[in-house]
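So, could you explain the following?
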Amino acid sequence: MKNQTIYLLRHGETEFNTQGRYQGELDSPLTEMGIQQVQQNALMLKSLIGDPNEWKVFSSPLGRAMQSTEIICETIGYDLKNVVKEDRLTEVAVGQWAGLTTKEIENSWPNLLHNTDVYNWYFNAPNGEAYDLVVNRLSAWLETIQHIPQVIVISHGLTGRILRGIYADLMKEDTLKLEVSQDAFFKLTNKTITKICSDFDDF
């Protein structure tokens, strides 16, 4: 819809993040740094949204996203019970690579890393989720919310990257190169994407 605004946030740093392990649909709790990142983002979000009850909040149901959502809701003054847990916002599934480091993956599946690149290789995971399937589920979700004028989304690194790519009509190779950050978030409106971080001084 015209004039729709979406704020897209990623969960904070997790234990697996610090170990360089791919999480996919697995989970690990936020670190102290991760909690601080979410709190910082939530304070910036609060300064931008006005009345929180005029917004609809959606979250991935995975634990690290819900832990982040709880912090965000507490900070902005939104009732956690009103958050919609949306399965289509979960992280891209990496199949048998979930919980492993890049080194462990290289040791066990060296052939699957050939003829690919640093942005695309995780879609080669055995029993993992194909890029097009992720695009389909996120596109379908975006369609279901197009009538909601003000939306806050808490999701994941790769999923958030692909969601932004769909929103801005980017090609796959450009989508997968989009920035992923845990101490910033994004405003999506009128097909444009604005990064919001701690040095963002327009509020």
Q: What stands out?
A: The beta strands are 5-10, 56-59, 84-85, 150-155, 184-189, 192-197. The helical segments are 15-19, 32-49, 63-76, 102-108, 131-144, 157-167, 172-175. The chain has a mean pLDDT of 93. The two ends are 24 Å apart (CA to CA).
